[in-house]
Amino acid sequence: MKKLLNFLPLLALLIVITSCSSVRVAADYDKNANFGEYKTFAFFKTGIDKAEISDLDKRRILRAIEAEMLTKGFTKSENPDLLVSLFTKSQQRVDVYNNSWGYGGWGWGGFGPWGAGFGPGWGWGWNQPSVSTSTQGVLYIDLIDSNKKELVWQGMGTGYLSRNMEKKEARIKEFVTEIMTKYPPVVQ
C-alpha cells in the first residue's frame, strides 16, 4: 500500500505531462459532399488574412497544411477544387497549486538578556502556492468547395502552445498533422 501511495504523485505528474503535449482533434463535414472528386487546392487569402496570429505563425501553419495536402495526393492549383482557410483561438490558463503542506522546522529559542526564552519546538507550516500559466490554442482548418462556395469539411485541434521558438514549428506541425488525420472523412 505504501508503494502505491508513493507511486500516485508520479502517475499524476505523468498524466499532466502527457495531456499537455497531446492535441485533441475533431472534425465535421458535409455528408453530401463527394470528397473523392477533390484533387486540387489553393489557400483562401481572405479567410487567412483574418486569422489573429502573427504572420510568422501563419506561414508555419500554411507550410504544414500544404505539406499535408501534398502528402494526401492533392495538387496546388490556380483553379482549385478546394479552398483552404484557417482561424485560431487562444486562451491563457492559470493554475494555482496550494497543496504544499508540511512540517515546520524546530530550533533553539532566543535566550537573551530580556528573559524571553523559548525552547526547542516544532509546528506546522506551509510553502507559498505555486502558479503556472499556459496558453491553450485552437486551430481550425476549413476546406471550402470552390465552385459552390460552401464549407465541406472543418478540422479542429486543441492543445497547449509552446513559447519556445525552437519547439513552436514542431508543435504547429503536430497540430496540423493530427487535424488532417481526420481528412478525408469516413462516410458511413
Q: Can you tell me about this structure?
A:
- By secondary structure, the protein is of the alpha/beta class.
- The protein has one domain: Double Stranded RNA Binding Domain (2-Layer Sandwich).
- It contains 4 helices and 8 strands.
- The protein has helices at residues 2-21, 45-49, 55-71, 165-180; strands at residues 24-29, 40-43, 75-76, 82-97, 101-103, 124-126, 130-145, 150-160.
- The two termini are 49 Å apart.
- InterPro entries: DUF4136 (IPR025411).
- Residues 1-26 form the signal peptide.
- It comes from Flavivirga rizhaonensis.
- Residues 25-185 form the DUF4136 domain.
Short characterization:
This protein has helices at 2-21, 45-49, 55-71, 165-180, and strands at 24-29, 40-43, 75-76, 82-97, 101-103, 124-126, 130-145, 150-160. The chain has 188 residues and is α/β, with parallel strands linked by helices. It has a single domain, classed as Double Stranded RNA Binding Domain (2-Layer Sandwich).
